[in-house]
Model the fold of this input.
Amino acid sequence: MVKIARCLTYIWMLLFSYALSAENAFWVTPTFPTGEAEQGIVSVEQVYHYQLFEPKKGYEKVRLVQRKYASLATAEEAFIARMSAIASLDYQWWLDTWEGDSKLLALDYYASKGLNKDYWLDTWQKQFVGRKITFKQKIVLPEYIIIVYNVAAANGKSGPIDLPVVFEQKAKQWLVSLDLRREPLLRISPWVKGLDKKEIVYE
Amino acid sequence: MNKYLLLLLCLLATATHAISTRFADEGERSFTLVEHYKYQRMQYQDVVIKQFENQPRDVNEGPDRQLVQFLSALRKDNFNWWLNNWNQQTRDDWQAKSELKKARRVYNYWRATFTKQSVVQFKDFVLIGQYVLIGMQIDKEYHLLPFELENNRWRIDQDYMNAVFFQKLKEKLSTQQAG
Done:
């Protein structure tokens, strides 16, 4: 009899702990009655098209210019203007290479992180001034152009990562845009390694 | 004089040529991104909502209780209470579009959708990432609302509702209800 009682207690504890673990498996639970949880999956496939350009031999190096010779008429010229602004520590010129809404967004974000003008001038001085900047790729999308570039390390060798800058055209000027900041396309940058497909599972 | 002009034109032409030929066209490329979103779905068991709140309560009692507040605000025709069920980003967006009366238009849609005569039944409790989606049937129409925690309160995110996977999931759940 005692054995049966112990056995029943054990089974009851097992069931109780299972119920507890089932309930605690989720970080939030419904407050009205529901059935058991079922796992499901929803998939979305998206195909992106882009035009790939690579610098011709002899044109890889970005030749910096003075502001009076700079232009924003093409994305390439706008990129040269931006790099020239940075390399000449001209903060106002750098600000002028931003598209209006993106600039406000960036400055708000930088302000929230304490990244002020002095921070940028110091960063540019340490990481850009006197360094060789090279064009790596140009990506043309329907409404944007992405310039991928590399800044050499202090020893003159290629920098560890290639960086993208996105440009959009506003009033006949190509300006730096943050519009693609949440786009998976930019985050994945398939052109860097020539990826043609990627699958991501969000748990 | 003409010789200098010709030289200048040649130099300009060379410079323009240099700009236009800085990059070589490697052709059009395509990239396919497949995103899989896993979720856990619990189906409510005959949960017809009949008890509504009389006034706003600033509490965290779960996303489905917050949805009851959302519906209660509509029953009481209390715009500010209803608005407070949306997250900050949504309210900021509507504030920026105040000239279009975006918030009022969405409110009017919901007022027309959920009247005092409407029957509302909770259908789905879906966990996906940091969000909880609550599916409900108002009269014959299925609605799905995404809740996220903001300052420890459950709030609806309008931006999330625009995502392709959300629309697909809504369609899938809605079809299963109909079936």
Residues 40-178 of chain B form one domain.
